[in-house]
Design a protein that fits this description.
single chain, 305 residues, alpha/beta, 2 domains, 5-stranded mixed beta sheet
Length: 305
């Protein structure tokens, strides 16, 4: 019986550990994936584009006024040049990508998983509008670009500004018509350096708060669900642990006040006592043979359980 309880307790402990890992790791995986993709794109841009002509910015968060208050736009990458401002969304996905330029949602198929995600071109359009308002420029000064930096394959016809990582630099480098000029590009880079929110925890938190206001509290509901799973697992393990420790001999030092019937066991060399009420069976105590034989029935030896 004790062996089954030990196995049961170990299984519950492992389940609690898995639940803890799920609560801590699962929500962080998409963020880690995004960081890997953003790092690959940023490194490629910095290595290939000369600093004399291009200013490469990463994780640009700007505020914009809306009808309901102040909103934020978080842009993966912004490249400022005399040839225009490139607004780049990076997606570090695997699997197959299906969609069209004007579809509100695209589909990602990975093995048997099929997930919808917002059309990144639409997101880029909203971010370009925010930059237009901030910089005072026309839409013609901007280039929208979506880059899939992972192993994803685009399975439906897409416009040229939707590409994998290998097509990003050619798309930028072939655009040599001066839309801004060097002086205007320098001014734009300076304004962004001053007006953008400093990258880090504060800007990310403000952007998430903005998303909650505009898209509902989906993020909070997911965190609450994961927290509930963790709490239930820990309560179950704690309850089982307390129950088992109260039943298994040798865990809590206590004094037995109930009458015991004790007998010497030649096989174990120990004194075996029982009160006929214990659910864990006979109670083995370490008492010398002569003392055990001398105990009358109903005597309670001073021992530790």
């Amino acid at each position: 019986m004790d062996g089954l309880l030990d196995v049961y307790l170990k299984v519950l402990l492992w389940l609690a550990l898995v639940a803890c890992l799920a609560v801590l790791v699962v929500p962080a995986l998409p963020r880690l994936n995004r960081r890997i993709g953003a790092w690959r794109v940023h490194r490629r841009l910095q290595q290939a584009l000369p600093a004399s002509h291009y200013t490469v910015l990463r994780d640009v968060t700007v505020r914009r006024a809306t009808a309901t208050g102040v909103d934020t736009s978080q842009i993966d990458h912004v490249v400022v040049s005399p040839y225009g401002i490139f607004v780049i969304a990076s997606k570090h996905y695997s699997g197959w990508i299906f969609g069209a330029e004007r579809e509100p949602q695209w589909t990602r198929v990975h093995f048997r998983s099929r997930r919808k995600f917002r059309n990144p071109l639409g997101r880029n359009h909203a971010q370009i509008c925010a930059l237009q308002e901030l910089l005072g420029l026309d839409a013609a000064a901007f280039h929208s670009l979506v880059v899939f930096s992972g192993s994803a394959e685009i399975r439906t016809p897409m416009p040229p500004n939707v590409t994998r990582l290998g097509g990003m630099l050619p798309y930028i480098q072939v655009r040599t018509a001066e839309l801004l000029g060097f002086e205007e590009a320098a001014r734009v880079a300076g304004v962004l350096a001053v007006k953008r929110l400093a990258p880090g925890v504060q800007s990310t938190a403000e952007h998430i708060a903005s998303l909650r206001q505009t898209q509902g509290n989906r993020f909070g509901a997911r965190q609450a669900l994961l927290g509930l799973v963790l709490m239930v697992s820990l309560v179950a393990v704690a309850g089982t642990l307390v129950h088992n420790l109260s039943e298994v001999p040798g865990q809590f030092p206590t004094r037995r006040d109930a009458p015991l019937a004790c007998a010497w066991s030649p096989e174990t060399g120990l004194c075996t006592c029982s009160d006929n009420r214990s659910r864990s069976g006979d109670w083995v105590v370490e008492i010398a043979e002569e003392h055990c034989r001398a105990l009358p029935v109903g005597h309670t030896p001073v021992t530790q359980r």
